[in-house]
User: What shape does this take?
Amino acid sequence: MQTANLLPLILVIAVIAYGLSYMRSRAVAEPIGGIRNLKALPFYYAARAALWCAIPALIVLALWAGFEGKVIQNYVVASLPAELAPESDGQASLILSQINNVAAGKLDPQFVPPEVVGAADLLDALKQRSASFKATLVILLAVLGAAYAWTRVQPHINARENVERTLRWIFFVCAAVAVLTTVGIVFSVIFETFRFFGKVPITEFLFGTSWSPQTALRADQVGSDGAFGIIPLFTGTLLISAIALLVAVPVGLLSAVYLSEYATRPARAVIKPLLEMLAGVPTVVYGFFAALTVAPFIRDLAERIGLEASSQSALAAGLVMGVMIIPFVSSLSDDVINAVPQTLRDGSLALGATQSETMKNVIFPAALPGIMGGILLAASRAIGETMIVVMAAGLAANLTANPLDSVTTVTVQIVTLLTGDQEFDSAKTLAAFALGMMLFIVTLALNVVALKIVRKYREQYD
Amino acid sequence: MTDQRSQAEIVRQSLKRRYRKERRFRLYGMTAIAIALLSLVVLFTDIIGKGYTGFIKTTMTLEVVLDGEQMYLDDASDKDQMSMADFQAPIITALQKHFPEVEERKDLRELSRLAGSYASNQIKDLLARQPELLGTTQTMEFLVHDTVSVYVKHADNPAYSIRLSEQQQRWVDELVQKGVVDTGFNDVFFSRGDSREPSNAGILGAIVGSLLTMVVTLVIAFPMGVAAAVYLEEFAPQNKFTDFIEVNINNLAAVPSIIFGLLGLAVFIGVFGLPRSVPVLGGLVLALMTLPTIIISSRAAIKSVPPSIREAAEGIGASKMQVVLHHVVPLAMPGMMTGSIIGMAQALGETAPLLLIGMVAFIVEIPDGFFSSATVLPVQIYLWASSAEQGFVELASAGIMILLSFMITMNALAIWLRKRLERRW
Assistant: This one.
């Protein structure tokens, strides 16, 4: 039975357990003078039965479904005769896909060696056996749990406390998923990264100035060793992010100032949501806009004034990315400016300063740390942004500071290395994980520093 | 005395300059807002201008003689014959009726290219369904070839005609005048999956894929997010681990989305062996990505429930869990839902992580379940935007309009919910 069918079945058993326990708790309460003499309301006895029924069964089901594929695969590969035993991971995945295709009936058995057909039969048999074991075990657990809880519907047992404790644990697990996600991210990049550094020395990765991740498909192929120097990617990322910040910081900051100090209430009520719309537009839309409208426009403009521009210039991607993070900067600085105590403002105005002088000489210096934090957050946004650069920036890793040239970024390379044809173990794929690790570390550092600054700043005025 | 007066004098003299500065500063602020709003307007007009033609289809109505001899077919119910037959021939003949002067082989080939590449399939399907129609004359509507469609829709712009020869342009103009080639509402776009040919490609597959993915995301992220928020606000002890959880949530909210794609690739595909490019996988990855947003907004909603409610419930003997589940959570629900809808809208527009977990595949069929290969709206837009053919650009912008209208609806719903259900204490 499929996992998808087992879920509703567990639910049904749980509902039945709920109903039976509810009735039993009423029946138990009858001779001792009604439900007021039970330790808990019938609802809690019933809920406890449902939990006892569902939770163990679900946990086992999740574990089984999560690992059965891998276990069966390894068993099947191990069962292959010696002459077919895969020598490398690439071969292993090839044979596995052959076996899978034969088993699924997509590949005619006469095109593959008989051992593979045998393995496919084995795979089928194992899958079936695993499925029936899984279904039996899960249903048994559900029924046993329900039966146990049913016998425990007794007036002296406080079911409410059990249920509440279980719920609290469930809530805790949900909160801990955030930690698990972080751990998952770290582990998913760290292993591949270390394997990558086994193939390419870390110094070459960090300090190399050339990036061309073409590795040889065959050992005897010429001139395609691949170069994995991250410097051109970092300069490209920095160039585009810098252009984006040059747009977003002044525009975002000044609009925040205008909105918080000058704009009338109705104007603010209209303009603020409109600005926030810019943040809600999906990045793929910005990418489309950058690639098909802004980039050709910039190229034509540059040609008209006699400059040479690439059709995938860093400028186009940067400008559009800047527009995207305007609302980010403006709403963060708005918060910060509003957090400056009114007394500072009043004091300055009372001394005869104009509004702009108050802004420039009093509020801005007071808000500066908070604004810096906001800018750092915006920078981390710009560095991690993917779609705009995938669509509008180039693939060629040029080491240049010319905004009209085409550059590539870390995120673009991750996407290009991991989409399209790939063998999972090549230095190419592993390089993507190493890049992901760098990206994660850099954005994490920026975020931690920024959040620390912002928090410190808030405490200053609270 | 004199000293003070001159001081006042100095201030007065500088006033003009200071007011000028004040005005200039205000002007800077207005310019900044104008720039931001202008980019919004340019963005939207650009997309609408490029995309409205995506909602128009160009068709060609022809009197087709289903002549068996011409198609090398004498029994349409015979499968072998059907697979060998020439269904292009009747279309050429029908077109030739409009241009009897065309006789040369080369010209005929050019003429036949006006019809879409699926036109012959249309005849084949018709005959397969109703074999008795062989030998009759049928009035059939075909989609025109993509280049013709683009040419007709942009008749006033010479940039769109470069892929048709002058002769072909003349033919098309004449057919338009005769009313043979006509435009209409593009129902194909709303009823099909992707295709290699722009005029035959639709967005329904991507919409269904997005819907399935969003269901998975919602089912996972909403209960988990609410539960986590309840734990952190109501039950969490003041200790290092709680702090650690909070730091993690705040950082996850700012991790670049592409990193979640790497997580999905390494953990869900690599370790758990989930198949690539299925809605379950996409939904899982997006759920992990949206979780921090939902947790943060749910916590804010829980915080805004006044302590008097809790105290009243505790006062009449409710346990902590009863206070939370019977009073706090129901009262905070509108706020939680608002936050979740906004989070879901973000997830709907997310592309980058889905690229890494294989949702960029070219998929023609409309997905029929959580485990069938699918693509989603933003990825479909990305695929079309990076295709070379002119016809795909208008489809991409039309797709963007649909995506944006979904997102605007969701955000409007969130605003309505907030206005309608949220209580001010």
